[in-house]
């Protein structure tokens, strides 16, 4: 076990080092619209502090964004209505469409050197948790699972995480939330504060990408359905704490929408991005051809396996993940837009949760489960 842990640890460290080396040579001027829009939000926070939540185009009085548009040869840089990633609001404002979280994180670093430190920080979090899972593994199967998944998770921090500045911090949050979920479910007496913290993290992820709100769906189902059956006060308190945590976590986005769109529940996205669900075979085929299908298959396969063979808290973790996968995959598979990272957050949250649930399981539990399953397959013993 020790030599296997060392081997997996060295593999993960090598991938992490390669990521950091590659990121250190990245440029912040790669000509992508999303990039300069996130950097504009960061610039507003650095200039105005909390008032940077107001992304009205008139706030570009120092011509920062105009300069960024000129750098990428955007021909209509003078007209805010034509600015990429910006949409007109009913009150006459032209505002950024993205929630403020990614810009806030970028604002923590000095202008001109913001993207690389953000990605390195996210990589260190993911790498640290991958090494922790390897170190905590108590059985060979859980060690192999943690080692292989840890290497995969670190590798994904380059591609597809580089496709959008919002993906890397989302993946780091999913890793932390996966660990805390496994810890929460591993305890006989579940902590209200811990589930509130999980809710806070998942709510905070909404500040990075609005669809991250769906990451909380499985938790609401896991807590809500048993409450409807039992009317248990303990389950109600757990659900209330989780919901409150989600609400507090996403408060910056609600505030930004109130400022920019006129209501906390109004979106700053344009009509092209807010569309009714509809199944599109072409979009579905794109997922089949993309790397995301590998993550989907891994998440579904691991969930089904642990629902069948898992013990105690491992099976409960699989129930949370199953609900989350159903809701999230149903949404994205019927969302008539495809990107190479849409289902990455839900698959990574699912796999982190299951990976940590397995390594936190007592070493004797998998063997006991195997014996019971084998005995059950033989049928009742003759008397």
Automatic annotation (TrEMBL):
UniProt keyword terms in alphabetical order: Membrane, Transmembrane, Transmembrane helix
Domain of life, per lineage: Bacteria
Transmembrane stretches, start-end: 116-136, 143-161, 167-185, 192-210, 216-233, 240-259, 291-310, 317-335
Record keyword Transmembrane helix present: yes
Protein name, as recorded: Glycosyltransferase RgtA/B/C/D-like domain-containing protein
């Amino acid at each position: 076990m020790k030599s296997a842990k060392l081997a997996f640890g060295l593999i993960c460290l090598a991938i992490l080092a390669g990521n950091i080396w590659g990121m250190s040579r990245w440029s912040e001027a790669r000509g992508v619209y999303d990039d300069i829009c996130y950097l504009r939000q960061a610039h507003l926070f650095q200039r105005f502090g909390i008032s940077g939540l107001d992304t009205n185009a008139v706030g570009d009085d120092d011509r920062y964004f105009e300069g960024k548009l000129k750098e990428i040869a955007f021909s209509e840089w003078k007209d805010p209505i034509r600015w990429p990633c910006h949409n007109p609001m009913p009150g006459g404002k032209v505002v950024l469409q993205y929630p403020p979280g990614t810009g806030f994180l970028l604002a923590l670093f000095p202008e001109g050197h913001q993207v690389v430190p953000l990605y390195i920080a996210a990589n260190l979090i993911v790498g640290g948790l991958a090494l922790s899972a390897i170190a905590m593994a108590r059985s060979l199967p859980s060690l192999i699972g943690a080692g292989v998944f840890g290497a995969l998770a670190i590798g994904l921090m380059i591609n597809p995480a580089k496709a959008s500045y919002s993906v890397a911090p989302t993946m780091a949050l999913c890793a932390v939330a996966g660990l805390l979920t496994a810890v929460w479910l591993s305890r006989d007496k579940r902590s209200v504060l811990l589930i509130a913290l999980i809710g806070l993290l998942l709510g905070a992820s909404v500040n990075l990408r609005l669809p991250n709100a769906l990451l909380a769906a499985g938790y609401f189902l896991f807590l809500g359905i048993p409450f409807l059956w039992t009317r248990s006060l303990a389950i109600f308190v757990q659900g209330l704490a989780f919901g409150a945590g989600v609400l507090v976590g996403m408060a910056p986005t609600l505030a930004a929408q109130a400022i920019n769109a006129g209501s906390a529940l109004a979106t700053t996205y344009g009509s092209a991005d807010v569309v009714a669900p509809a199944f599109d075979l072409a979009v579905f085929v794109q997922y089949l051809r993309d790397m995301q299908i590998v993550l989907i298959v891994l998440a579904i396969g691991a969930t089904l396996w642990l629902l069948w063979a898992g013990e105690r808290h491992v099976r409960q973790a699989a129930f949370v993940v199953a609900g989350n996968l159903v809701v999230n995959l149903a949404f994205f598979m019927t969302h008539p837009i495809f990107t190479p990272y849409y289902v990455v957050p839900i698959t990574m949250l699912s796999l982190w949760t299951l990976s940590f649930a397995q390594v936190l399981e007592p070493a004797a539990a998998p063997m006991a489960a195997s014996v019971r399953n084998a005995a059950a397959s033989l049928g009742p013993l003759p008397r």
